[in-house]
Amino acid sequence: MPDISIIKLKVRRGTDAQRRTIILEQGELGYTTDTNRLYVGDGITIGGGPVGAVMLKPLATVNSLTGITGAALYDIVSVSSLLYQLTGTNYTSLSSWAFIGTKVDNTTIQYNGGNTLVIKDNGITGTKFASTAAFNQGAIIATATNGLSSNVDSTTVRIVSNRLTVGTISAANISNKALGNGLHGGDGTTLSINATPSSFGYNSGVLTLTALPFGIVNAASLSANTIGPGLFIDTDNKLEATFQTVDASLTLNSNQLSITPVVAGATTTFSNITYNNNGQITGTTSIITRALTGNHPNNSHLSAFNGFPLQSRFTNQSTVTGVSGNPVGRTVNINLTSAGFMSINTAEFGLVAIPIFKYT
Hints:
The termini are far apart. This protein has helices at residues 16-19, 287-291; strands spanning 12-14, 29-32, 37-40, 49-50, 76-79, 82-86, 97-99, 109-111, 117-119, 140-143, 147-150, 157-160, 163-166, 183-186, 189-193, 200-203, 206-209, 231-233, 239-241, 250-253, 256-259, 271-275, 281-286, 319-324, 332-346, 350-359. The chain is mainly beta. 9% of the residues are buried. The protein has 2 helices and 26 strands. The strands form 11 sheets. A 4-stranded mixed beta sheet has the order 1-2-3-4. It has a 3-stranded antiparallel beta sheet with strand order 5-6-7, with no helix packed on it. The protein has a 3-stranded antiparallel beta sheet with strand order 24-25-26. It folds into 4 domains: 12-99, Seminal Fluid Protein  PDC-109 (Domain B) (Ribbon), CATH 2.10.10.30; 124-184, no CATH class; 222-260; 292-359, no CATH class.
């Protein structure tokens, strides 16, 4: 059985600051007593190289990297969830620490305030979409040039000024179930007014009122422009007539307008009748009274009948004594006094004078 010898092997040792001032021989080991790190020399590099990289204790800020005493080349440390590695020999310089986490372009993807990878606002452009990014039955299309857009037919739905607008809507695009009272059509049939032919018609495609059922239009439905002079709509929405009273000539009685007579009706014989501008009788004059005169202007034989009926005294009249058979059964003597004559213009004989006498 071979003899077993136990020996204690010690390597060159000292502080990390001392290590940084010497060159370890090729293959020579050096141990730092303050950072507990093992280094091996190559005969050239001051302080040698560390035997293996170390994952250091996490830090809160980047500036804390320069305070890691004894950090060796290629050591790795987490700073607020981001990984940094010492790529230079001077750990007290931030330029010696390189970020080795996921590299982002800060255009599409970036780290947020919590050092979490997020998509940057407005970071996704049309070039980031493949044609398969849009469902082919979802009314959205995607192209590498334009990105996502609405898939419209440009007829019923169009894009105007970069906005979706309604285009041409035809009868084929409207369901007949969407139509209410007074309309019919849809489902491919032209829309039109569902009107009663007896009351409505079309004139050059324009709906025209041809007749109205009895009693459906009231005065309130009338436009003031359709009412002419003499008519108005009162406060009770009734159509009324306006009239101006002229010499009390118009009368409204039981809702009937009538002309009030100026001269009361009477039976007259041989009268001249006077009318006003409204066709009303304003006066009557007996043509006989006007004709009874003994003062003929031409001094003809008619002047022999001096006098006139309304004289109060008899002077220079012709008087004739006569006998009257009235009253019946006896006779009475009477005096006939000239009262002029009655002149009548006949069609056949011309002017005829008939003597007139008053009697007492």
